[in-house]
Amino acid sequence: MNDSPHQPVLYKEIIHALQPRSGGRYVDGTLGAGGHARGILEASAPDGQLLGLDVDPQALALARKTLAPYEQRIHLAQASYTSLSAQLAQLQWDAVDGIVLDLGASSMQFDTPERGFSFMHDAPLDMRFGPSALQTAADLVNKLSERELADLIYQYGEERESRKIARAIVRARPLQTTRELVAVIESVSPRRGDRVHPATRTFQALRIAVNEELASIEEVLPQAVTGLRSGGRLVVISFHSLEDRIVKDFFREHSKDLINPPYEQIYEVERKATLKEVTRKPITPSDEEIKNNPRARSAKLRIAEKL
Ligand SMILES: C[S@@+](CC[C@H](N)C(=O)[O-])C[C@H]1O[C@@H](n2cnc3c(N)ncnc32)[C@H](O)[C@@H]1O
User: Fold this and answer.
1) Residue 272 CB coordination number (10 Å)
2) CA angle, 213 as apex, 194 and 158 as ends, to 5°?
3) Ligand 1 atom with minimal separation from the 3 CA
4) Hey, which of 6, 27, 53, 106 would you mutate to test ligand 1's pocket, going by the most ligand atoms within 8 Å of its Cβ?
5) Model confidence at 259: pLDDT above 80
6) Given the DSSP bridges, would you call strands 275-277 and 300-306 parallel, antiparallel or unpaired?
7) 251 lines ligand 1 (CB under 6 A)
8) Residue 278: helix, strand or coil by DSSP?
């Protein structure tokens, strides 16, 4: 998660994992404000290169400023990390030394009220990371059936009260603003003391759905493995258990040979392991980092190395 005014999440750990070197080629698939990217460029001076991607034009503009001193060594594109293979082909980079993915929304996005990510501010129900997303949170809230909404809030928000919330949303719609949505959620799931705000999980669920976050992670991981040179590293920071599970399962599966795939897995063929897990257990921020940047508290870093 991004960072300004804080240091990027798990900054030292990311740089340590990637061991950037002069002459190396690196990808930051989630540029944000460019904090991790700057660290990679500094550590790979004088001539390490970096490809930086973000779907959000505002993030890209911010990163362009942060990275101005390294202009000669960067290639930035407003594009999804799901287009990683195509982006590498365009640069004629056949293998890179390291790839970083720092998933989810940035502090800049959370803290820009009109983007609609935060239930603390009133704004249109948007929640798109970038203009290429096909639908806004308002589209989902107003168009899905009660059943679809309940499933979405349950699956992506891990919200136990999903049915109640979906029913209340359907009764109250059309809903256009974050404040309207928060009021509907609070009407069936009142605030209790200092526990997490009752809208937290529903907002998370809508954001994940609007930006197709989980499908995007599944799409990029195989491309990342293909794009790395042998010994190159893939480092992924996730912020909730659904993302982390995808990364963990992928790393685990691809660090084993698959011999005699079970009959039911008709799409699987025998394959050799392509990865070595560097972290069996994820790395998490220190207490000090969490104190300085409470948004870092749920971060989990996993590292894998291409065989
Ligand atoms: C947590 S922030 C990254 C912060 C960054 N590491 C830094 O140091 O400032 C995540 C960024 O990923 C971007 N993002 C989310 N999904 C994306 C995707 N599919 N492709 C490219 N960027 C994406 C978001 O727009 C956001 O700017």
Assistant:
1) 10
2) 40
3) 9
4) 106
5) no
6) antiparallel
7) no
8) coil
Distance between Cα 145 and ligand 1 center (Å): 30
Atom of ligand 1 nearest to the CA of 30: 12
Instruction: Report how far ligand 1's centroid is from the alpha carbon of 185 (Å).
Output: 28
Contact between 145 and 166 under an 8 Å Cβ cutoff? The reply is no
CA pair distance 218, 189, nearest whole angstrom: 33
For atom 5 of ligand 1, the residue with the nearest CA is 32
Q: Give this prediction's pTM.
A: 0.94
Residue pair 283/301 in contact (Cβ under 8 Å)? The answer is: yes
**Cα 124 to Cα 112: distance, rounded to the nearest angstrom:** 12
Looking at the predicted structure, is the pLDDT value of residue 200 above 90? yes
Q: What is the pLDDT of residue 260?
A: 73
CB atoms within 10 A of CB 190: 8
133-179 per-position pLDDT tens digit: 999 999 999 999 999 999 999 999 999 999 999 999 999 999 999 99
Residue with CA at minimum distance from ligand 1 atom 12: 30
Interacting residues of 211 by C-beta distance below 8 A, sequence separation 6+: 127, 128, 129, 133
Contacts of 160 (CB under 8 A, 6+ apart): 154
CA–CA separation, 304 and 252 (whole Å): 9
56 lines ligand 1 (CB under 6 A): yes
